Amino acid sequence: MAIKKENKRNDSKKYLLLLSLSALGVVYGDIGTSPLYAFRVCFHGSHSVEPTHDNVLGVLSMIFWALIIIISLKYLLLILRADNQGEGGILALMELVLPEKGKFKPIILAMGLFGAALLYGDGSITPAISVLSAVEGLEVATPVFIPYIIPITLAILFLLFWIQRRGTGGVGILFGPVMLIWFFVLAVSGIVH
């Protein structure tokens, strides 16, 4: 009996570890890579600032506090407390405030559908921007890769969407270790510098 409980506890720990690694690949993959192209845009382009010591620290500070405030306040304090019988998402939350009838019903319905459209738009453009920004990093290493940036990006996106048909769990298991290494490298380079 005690052996069965111990095996069940070990299986539970393994499942939690696998689930955490998968969440790292799916959820935190976007959060962990988005600052890269946000950071790049701050110092390159028509509205960029000069990359001085104070400007770099200022931009890093803004990105850090934006992530902390958005995750802590928006998600933990607001979004996670709002649910429609255990369901989330913009349409489930819209249902909470949608009146049976009245002049505001079409407006709220339109806002909910518009929010869902924005979510779909974000879901289609974010992978392209993230992958393109990452592949553009090859340009920094050597200019030899410049003509291959778009073809490499398209190949990676094709592979991503091909793998994604297996479901979020498959993508998470694939990218979880990659994101774990990415965050480890960021932490080590931050500590060293």
Find the structural class using helix and strand composition: mainly alpha
SSE string: HHHHHH
Total DSSP E strands = 0
Total DSSP helices: 6
Q: In one word, what is the shape?
A: globular
Write down the Rg. Answer: 21 Å
The CA-CA distance between the termini, in Å, is 52 Å
Short description:
This protein has helices spanning 2-43, 53-78, 90-97, 105-141, 149-164, 168-192. The chain is mostly helical. The chain is globular.
Characterize the structure shown:
- Helix content is 80%, strand content 0%.
- With 193 residues, the chain is an all-alpha fold.
- The termini are far apart.
SSE inventory with pairings:
Layout: H1 2-43, H2 53-78, H3 90-97, H4 105-141, H5 149-164, H6 168-192
Key attributes of the depicted protein:
single chain, 193 residues, mainly alpha, 6 helices, 80% helix
